[in-house]
Amino acid sequence: MISMLKITNRGKIILITLVIVGALSFLLINSFQESAAYYTTVEELLKEEPSPDTYLRLAGILNPESIKWNEENNSLLFSLEEPGYDIHVNCQYNNIKPDNFADNDSLLLEGYYRNNVFLAEKIMYQCPSRYEEELKSN
Amino acid sequence: MTGINFGNIFLAAGLAVSLILFVILIFLLFSYKKNEGKIKTEKVNRFLKITGWLSFIFTAAASLFLVYLFLNDVFQSIYVYNYSSSDLPVYYKLSAFWAGQSGSLLFWQLLNTGLFLYIIGYCKSFRRSDLEFKLITGLLLLLLKIYFFILLIFPARPFGFFNVTPLEGSGLNPMLQSPGMIVHPPLTFAAYAAAAVPIVFVLAGALSRKDIFTDKSLLKTFRFWTLIGWFTLTLGIIIGGQWAYYELGWGGYWDWDPVENASLLPWFFMTAMLHNIITYRRFKILKLTTALLAAGTYLLVINATFLTRSAILDSVHAFGSQDLGRYLLYFLITGLVLTSAVIFFRRRHYYSENRLENIISREGLVILTNITLVIFAVGVGFATMFPVISELALGQRVSLDQGFYNQIALLLGGLLVVFLGLCHFLNWKKGINIKKISTEKTSLTAAVIALFAGILLGRLVLNTGFLDTFFLTIIFLALTALLLYAARDIKSFSRKNAFTAEGLRKLLYSRKRRYSILIIHLGLLVLIFGLVGYSLDREYVFRINIDETIEVEDYSLGYQGIQEKTSGNNTYYQADFSLKYRGQERGVISSTRRFHPTFEQPYTIIGLERRLLEDFYLILGGWTPGESATVQIRLNPLVRFVWLGSYIIYSGALLLLIPGKIIAPKKT
Q1: Minimal C-alpha gap between A60 and chain B (Å)
Q2: Which residues contact B43 (CB under 8 A, 6 or more apart)?
Q3: What does the alpha-carbon distance between residue B595 and residue B604 come to, in Å, rounded to a whole number?
Q4: B57, B62, B55, B47: which is closest to B9 by C-alpha?
Q5: Which A residues in the span 33-72 are in contact with B, Cβ-Cβ below 8 Å?
Q6: Residue A72, phi then psi, degrees to nearest 5
Q7: Lowest-pLDDT range of A79-88, B352-361, B591-600
Q8: Taking Cα atoms as reference points, which of B558, B546, B419, B539 lies closest to residue B482?
Q9: Where in chain A are the domains?
Q10: Which of B360, B378, B398 best probes binding to A when mutated, by most A CB atoms within 10 angstroms?
């Protein structure tokens, strides 16, 4: 007869916790590559030229004069710059222009860098409440 | 400024007075310990009441001053300039109070001082408790208030003024001009304020060696404020999501944005705490766990504030300020160290009277639920902080996307759904009992029906894959268990007039707690059902010419043209479209772009056509007058159920909170 392992209640709870944490860790480690977005700036992007399959998070300053709407394929074109450098990255966003877009100079994009164009899948920016910092210094 | 800066005066006075009272309280505490309790209770009660009133009065006065500045368009005030304009309706001028960093902190402090005044001055169970406990609670609450006064006077200054007076304010961001944004911040801050009660009771209890759990009326107070915190936080989070969906107009309601995640973490802990209190009352176990959760909740609240107000994580919500961030980080670290020390050194004080007897029981399930909720919080917290962790550890900043969070939510949410169903089968104390919910034959039939319904919905109606269908099926199974349990309970209560108004009233009155909880669990299952639809949404961008119709899956959209309208200072461009679903007319759907003179950004109002199983969501992009328009279309399945589920949760929570007397059946 196989005797039942005498695990205390506390032992059972710890065991179950380990199983859940283990299952979760397994799932997450497997999905890590697909979900990770590597942070980079305009300067770093142009210097390092990451592979076209790396999902990136690009930070840069929007050049408001570069904003164009491409009617052919419904995409928004613009360029991001790096403060203090005379460089830029051309970006493309296949979606309509978000409301706050031109107003925010500091942008964060998520997407891929392919054929010298950053294909943005998401656009993020800081809330205009950063006003406070600027005005306080007046 | 031509007048006197009353705001800063009141805040400074509040701080000064609180510091003096703090010293006096410490003195009182020491003299109490030396004289072995020869201080009159009445004196202490009166003194504590005074400390409550003073900090409240000064905060209220400062708040009233800010309201005065808003209502009188005093644009020389930097805060009023940033968030108001003379043409803003009164109710938005008032809600602008919490539109920005410093004002929202002032509002939170107002809630703090008001709530703490009630607790130490008027809460019966508190006033009747041990003297040392009261003194230490008073001290801790005073410490919190002092900290907030310091925040308001140094890094976050609501009462700064320009040297010159601008003629007009910059106006309130149109996105904040909505009912959702009027209530979302106050609700969230109410939750944050309420969260202070459990941790302070736990710490004061440990320090004064008063067992807050065995004092029945004090435990009731503990539970009540935890419940209020939980309820207002649930409301705050969901209304925030609704605002994002209807007003922000990007098509979704939850983004796993760091600020959103930060407010979710204390919610997990509060939910766990509520379950623990129920379990303690029955079995006298889980005291230490509850104490740790209480402390964790408030630390997570401070953490949420820190993440929102420092600039360490990229977020669309963050109002970054390095100064304030530093203050909050110190508070967080100090709080973490001190709380851990107190609970560790006095841990014996929190050892429970009993131990868990059987893991296969309702209380065993509560423990499993706690574990799942805590792992959920840790997982989401870790993923949220990952950019900072990876930067510190590897020098490369890496952030984690939706997919990562969805995995966590799928596994742990799935477990929670299973537990929600399982709890009906389990007895308190021991064992599984299918007969608790129904006869074996009924249960089996219902389970099979639920199984088929899930597969049908997933594969045929929503056209989704194995995982989602599986998830839907377990939701249906859990729902079935809940409904069968409720049906059996209702039948057992009153065989004759169970479903009449009077019968229901009697039922809800006699079994108010049970049914409140059932309703909340039901709402939660419906909400989770709606959440499954989130990963099934589709997005399209089209350019349509005038009088042209495009086909989008089962919908037809025809562009009719743009109308220009003016209202007040605003100019609106409304794009109208005719919509058909599977050939059936659904009327006209419009999306509007609004332009406001002072606020440079345009603001897009979305068009929405709601069906039970899916929302047709329309966002106007650009247009060429007389020719074409570009639109973004999003199809969102099951969204209606998210909101429906939340309303059911609110009903259940309200039922739980209201005193039984209100629904007492009439005596014939």
Answers
A1: 13
A2: none
A3: 9
A4: B62
A5: 34-39, 55, 57, 69, 71
A6: -60, -55
A7: B591-600
A8: B419
A9: 37-126
A10: B398
Going by the DSSP 8-state scheme, the letter that residue B256 receives in this structure is: -
Q: Which residues of A117-127 are buried (b: 16+ CB within 10 A; e: fewer)?
A: ebbbebbbbbb
DSSP strand pairing (A36-41 vs A56-62): parallel
Neighbour count for residue A70 (Cβ, 10 Å): 11
- Please state whether B568 falls in left (phi above 0), alpha (psi between -120 and 50) or beta: left
The three-state (H, E, C) secondary structure of B127-195, written as one string: HCCCHHHHHHHHHHHHHHHHHHHHHHHCCCCCCCECCCCCCCCCCCCHHHCCHHHHHHHHHHHHHHHHC
Q: Do A24 and B375 touch (CB under 8 A)?
A: yes
Sign of CA dihedral B16, B17, B22, B24: positive
Q: How many CB atoms lie under 10 A from the CB of residue B360? A: 12
* Residues of B whose CB is below 8 A from A69: 622, 630
Whether B622 has its CB under 8 Å from any CB of chain A: the answer is: yes
User: Å from A50 to nearest chain B CA?
Assistant: 13
Domain boundaries, chain B: 1-174, 433-493, 537-640
**pLDDT confidence bin for A133, thresholds 50/70/90:** very low
Tokens of B644: 């429906």
CA distance A24 to B379: 9
pLDDT (tens digit, 9 = 90+) per residue, B315-351? 777 666 778 889 999 999 999 999 999 999 999 999 9
What's the mean pLDDT in A26-34?
90
- Kindly report, residue by residue over B419-470, the tens digit of the pLDDT: 999 998 888 877 777 767 677 788 889 999 999 999 999 888 888 888 999 9
- Closest-CA residue of chain A to B313: A126
Length of chain A: 138
Checking if the pLDDT of A129 tops 50, the result is no
| DSSP per-residue letters across B350-361 | G--SS----SSS
- Inter-chain residue contact B317 with A127, CB threshold 8 Å: yes
Token duo for residue B320: 């970054």
pTM for this entry = 0.93
DSSP state of B536: G
Q: Are B314 and A57 within 8 A, CB to CB?
A: yes
pLDDT at B481: 92
- Place B2 in a pLDDT band, splitting at 50, 70 and 90: low
Give exposure, B451-488, as e/b (b: 16+ Cβ within 10 Å): eebbeebbeeebebeeebbebbbbbbbbbbbbbbbbeb
CA distance B422 to B441: 18
Which of B433, B279, B278, B436 lies closest to B364, judged by CA?
Answer: B279
Distance from CA of A115 to the nearest CA of B (A): 23
Name the residue in chain A with its Cα closest to that of B367: A13
What does the pLDDT look like over A53-87, one tens digit per residue? 999 999 999 988 899 888 778 889 999 998 888 89
Instruction: Convert B555-577 to b/e letters by CB count within 10 Å (16 or more is b).
Output: bbbbbeebeeeeeeeeebbbbbb
Q: Name the token pair of B478.
A: 């859990």
Q: What is the pLDDT of residues B137-162, one digit of tens each?
A: 999 999 999 999 999 999 989 999 99
CB contact under 8 A, A126 and B320: yes
Task: For residues B615 and B636, give the distance between their C-alpha atoms in angstroms, rounded to a whole number.
Answer: 5
Distance separating alpha carbons of residues B436 and B448, to the nearest angstrom: 18
Q: Any chain B CB within 8 A of the CB of A95?
A: yes
Q: Is the pLDDT of residue B650 over 50?
A: yes
Sign of CA dihedral B173, B178, B179, B184: negative
Phi, psi of B172 (to 5 degrees): -85, 130
B153, B8 contact by CB (below 8 A):
yes
Q: Class assignment of domain A37-126?
A: mainly beta
